[in-house]
Design a protein that fits this description.
Layout (H helix, E strand, L loop, with lengths): L2 E3 L3 E6 L11 E2 L12 H8 L6 H4 L5 E3 L14 E6 L7 H6 L4 E3 L5 E3 L2 E7 L3 E6 L13 H12 L21 E6 L2 E5 L7 H6 L10 H4 L9 H10 L5 H8 L16 E3 L7 E6 L5 E3 L10 E6 L5 H6 L5 E2 L8 H7 L5 E6 L7 E5 L6 H7 L2 H9 L3 H9 L19 H5 L6 H10 L20 E6 L4 H15 L4 E6 L2 H10 L4 E4 L27 H8 L11 H6 L1
Parallel strand pairs: 4-14, 5-15, 19-20, 19-21
Antiparallel strand pairs: 1-18, 2-16, 2-17, 3-4, 6-7, 8-9, 9-11, 10-11, 12-13, 13-15, 18-21
Length: 565
């Protein structure tokens, strides 16, 4: 269904203390062989009595990260880390970079407790979560079971705040969990059947949060605050009512409400809109290293907003300490040259995507003739066989890439070698035979195959027009597809127009990156592999149908798609 070329991404690192901080550690009781060291930048506030000492700030059972382990290096406290982003909403990436989760993945994709002290699972359907004793929010308020109760009773099952009900990952079929507070540090979720995706969903890069800082959010909830006062607050911010006000303050993932307490390693101090966002260390963060230094090492993260086209040049000019967003392989040569002028290094960084670039046939295209053809697996296989991935690799990527299918990668325990290679070799003879077998054996005067309705097989491929490398690659594919009797015309457009063409069915094929999660495990949701979301370019109308509970889009009508669901 998809054609691709996997490749490495560019990463620029300046000479700054950027040791990995997002790896979960091991729970160790305070005093059990760990002597805490005060963070220098916080020592003054501690001496003035404005902040408790570190041993009273971290949980009594902190998470200890072994920095001498694989991929980690012990660091030292202090300093700023500069990032450059293309839009203000990119502040949400700090939730991904910080990666503080109730449960988290290790580098070998094992689920372990992170924010939690521990978790227990019974029969895959009963989950008991135990919090770390003495754990606090970034404002110093205790993190307790009340924060889970508030989310479940006052948000997830509140019709005003959640009119569609709780998040789907909290459902098994249509069944809600039984939620129970065991004590101040323990909560339990129980279903009658196993919930395979509950823990994995909370550990994801973009997780669902099942807790909130109740002491803060209650200020904006009609159950706990005066409705007249809430109305005034909503009117002041030009919002409809208290529920919209509440939603505007609830920014757990996006991190764009500086007032909202967090459990992440850094907390935002800048209210949007702004061209410069400053994140400072969370003095109550739950992780320490084996030397007793509270993480994170870095005091501040400064995120500067720039025009996205200027970011590679700014990064190359030494204006960023760590940069992976908004730079691409096409910037690699320029960035490598900048190493000579600035104290920084450029690396080819392995991503977890299923592919760097993929072509998505739109199985929901409006054109009935093309829809029938695109749904024929022989056509998709033929076009895949008619792509010379080796030529693309040599011309566009200097031989540093590896051709294959848009599928899971070797690091996934579910990987099989044939997933990458099946129908991915360059074989024009076989491609032509498949197209002939379909009945596309007649051609026009230019050698282009004819569709059953007599039109020439000229297919438009939509792109977002954001990467010149895609244009170059499509030119190479154009030449080899032409030898199979299929003419391809690239159609670049702005991202919104590009997406609307795909969503509406005007597009027949589209180019984007591959699977966002190429390292799935058996515990992770298979959402990317089945029609579940409109943004899935290969079946947007089916995805919209499932996403909207049948209120929009089109019901899947292909037997194979129904089988996936």
């Amino acid at each position: 269904m998809k054609r691709l070329l996997p490749v490495w991404a560019a990463l620029l690192i300046a000479a700054a203390p950027v040791a990995a901080l997002w790896a979960p550690g091991t729970a160790v009781a305070a005093g059990a062989g760990v002597t805490f060291q005060e963070t220098p930048s916080l020592a003054g506030r501690v001496a003035e009595g404005k902040l408790p000492p570190v041993e009273d700030r971290v949980p009594k059972v902190p998470s200890v990260v072994f920095m001498n382990a694989k991929d980690k290096t012990p660091g030292r406290h202090g300093g700023d880390m500069r990032l450059i982003m293309g839009k203000g909403r990119d502040v949400r990436l700090m939730t991904i970079y910080g990666y503080a989760r109730l449960v988290a993945y290790t580098s070998d994709l094992k689920l372990v407790a992170d924010i939690l002290e521990r978790f227990e699972v019974k029969d895959g359907r009963e989950f008991t979560l135990t919090l770390r004793p003495g754990h606090k929010w970034s404002d110093g308020h205790p993190f307790t079971a009340e924060d889970f109760r508030y989310y479940w009773e006052d948000m997830a099952t509140n019709k005003k705040l959640s009119p569609l009900g709780p998040r789907k990952k909290l459902l098994v079929g249509e069944e809600l969990p039984e939620f129970k507070v065991i004590d101040k540090r323990t909560v339990r979720y129980t279903w009658s059947r196993p919930n395979s995706f509950f823990l994995a969903g909370m550990a994801g890069a973009a997780p669902f949060f099942i807790y909130r800082p109740a002491h803060y959010m209650k200020r904006f909830h009609a159950r706990y605050s005066d409705t007249a006062e809430l109305k005034k607050m909503a009117e002041k911010e030009r919002l409809m009512d208290w529920s919209v006000l509440h939603q505007s303050k609830d920014r757990m993932y996006t991190l764009d409400n500086p007032e909202m307490p967090t459990l992440q390693p850094w907390m935002n101090t800048t209210k949007p809109p702004s061209q410069r966002f400053v994140f400072v260390r969370n003095p109550f963060f739950h992780r320490v290293d084996t030397a007793g230094r509270q993480l994170p090492y870095i005091d501040r993260v400064i995120m500067n907003i720039s025009l996205r086209d200027l970011i590679p040049a700014k990064a190359g000019a030494g204006e960023s300490d760590l940069q992976s967003r908004y730079i691409a392989f096409e910037d690699y040569t320029f960035l490598k040259e900048s190493e000579k002028r600035y104290d920084q290094s450029v690396h080819l960084w392995r991503t977890v995507k299923g592919s760097h670039i993929a072509i998505y046939p739109n199985l929901n295209t409006k054109d009935p003739a093309w829809r029938k053809i695109l749904r024929d697996v022989r056509f998709r296989r033929a076009l895949s066989l008619a792509i010379d991935r080796n030529e693309i690799n040599q011309v566009a990527y200097f031989g540093l890439a590896r051709g294959g299918n848009n599928s899971i990668i070797e690091e996934s325990p579910l990987f099989r070698p044939e997933y990458r290679t099946l129908w991915a070799g360059f074989d024009l003879a076989r491609a032509n035979r498949l197209l002939d077998e379909m009945g596309l054996d007649k051609k026009d005067g230019d050698g282009i195959r004819l569709l059953p309705d007599g039109r020439s097989a000229i297919i438009t491929i939509d792109t977002s027009g954001e990467k010149t490398e895609i244009t170059d690659i499509l030119e190479l594919i154009h030449d080899t597809w032409l030898k199979a009797g299929i003419k391809m015309l690239p159609r670049p457009a702005q991202r919104d127009i590009f997406r609307n063409r795909v969503f509406s069915g005007d597009s027949k094929m589209a180019v984007w990156s591959g699977l966002s999660n190429g390292i799935p495990t058996a515990d992770m949701t298979p959402d990317e592999f089945v029609p579940t979301r409109q943004y899935q370019l290969q079946w947007p109308k089916w995805g919209k149908f499932m996403e909207s509970n049948g209120q929009a889009g089109e019901p899947p009508d292909l037997p194979e798609a129904k089988q996936l669901l």
